[in-house]
Amino acid sequence: MFYQLPPDDDHNELPLTFNSEIGFLNYFLSAAFTEKENNLASAWTGHEPFLFCLLHYTKPRRFVELGTHKGNSFFAACQISQTMNNAIECIAIDTWEGDEHAGFYSNKVFENFKRDFIKYDNIAKYIRKRFSEAVSMFENKSIDILHIDGLHTYEAVKEDFETWLPKLSDLGIILLHDTQAKTKDFGVWKLWEELQNTYPSFEFEHSHGLGVLLVGQNPPAHIKLLFNAMKKEEVVQLVKYFFSGIAGVEKSKKVLKQSIKRSVQKEFKKSYTWRIGRLFTYLPSQFYKLIQKQKREQF
Ligand SMILES: C[S@@+](CC[C@H](N)C(=O)[O-])C[C@H]1O[C@@H](n2cnc3c(N)ncnc32)[C@H](O)[C@@H]1O
């Protein structure tokens, strides 16, 4: 059972450095260049720098993820928690069976997830259940940040949002992935249209879109400051350029890595080792053919 979190009195005073917007941004963006530990990649990759910043800045006590798959976004949260003195408890919830959008996958995905999870087992937990079954394990107001990334139809994401909303604490932030995906029956964009004016919010359009909603009833001062700053056109534009820019760099790093790998492979094929290797696989088959031929001639 995950119990209600006490009021967050530690964050009701703002550090002096936040007195100016530049001071605030300087601190907020400082975790963006954290080097990612795992090699996983998914549609979420472009939001990892923001997740590092958000968690580093907001200092949530409990982060819960609905929809973890291989663990790309989840392990990013675990990683930053470890750099913050294990401040954030991270909980992953998934059936690890897949769904109509992510595709249905084999148990190997869960086996690999458990292997990678070991590194973070001092701060993380996982629950292999449907979201609707796991929800009763959480008391109301027991989660500071909830990331919703399960099935992306309008009906599914609305149900996830509504059933989990009471579980959010006074700090309460909900992240919704895929707010920009409009193919097939993806419907997060539709829910986002309904929610973005109901709660203080901002959205990143890159990497399929990520919506950030402040649902907490009584947020501490630093959370209010973040959402107030993101109401200002010049701040929000700068922050959006910054994170979509980094996402672009991350993507080009990946493309670069792939093209280096391809050219290394190409060079390797021309190399001496490759030729000798080929010879070792070629010679035995030639010997075999020769012996067979000799046998045939003897008869
Ligand atoms: C889009 S993937 C998650 C991607 C992940 N956050 C990442 O960083 O790549 C969606 C996951 O949600 C899980 N899922 C979908 N609906 C679910 C439900 N109702 N209960 C539990 N898991 C569910 C699927 O098994 C799948 O692994």
List keywords for this structure.
299 residues, alpha/beta, Rossmann fold, 2 domains, 7-stranded mixed sheet, two-stranded antiparallel sheet, 15% strand, elongated, binds S-adenosylmethionine
Could you characterize the architecture of this molecule?
By secondary structure, this protein is of the alpha/beta class. The chain has 10 helices and 9 strands. The chain has helices at 21-28, 48-58, 72-83, 108-117, 131-134, 154-164, 188-195, 221-229, 233-270, 272-298, and strands at 62-66, 89-94, 98-99, 103-104, 124-128, 143-148, 168-177, 201-204, 210-214. The chain has a 7-stranded mixed β-sheet, sandwiched between helices. α2 packs parallel to α3 (72-83). The N and C termini lie far apart (80 Å). The structure holds S-adenosylmethionine (SAM). Residues 42, 44, 67-69, 72-73, 94-99, 102, 130-131, 149-151 line the site of S-adenosylmethionine. S-adenosylmethionine is lined by residues 42, 44, 67-69, 72-73, 94-99, 102, 130-131, 149-151.
The CATH class of the largest domain is Alpha Beta
Low-confidence stretches: none
Unique bound compounds: S-adenosylmethionine
Tell how many strands the DSSP assignment holds. Answer: 9
- The helix-strand sequence is HHEHEEEHEHEHEHEEHHH
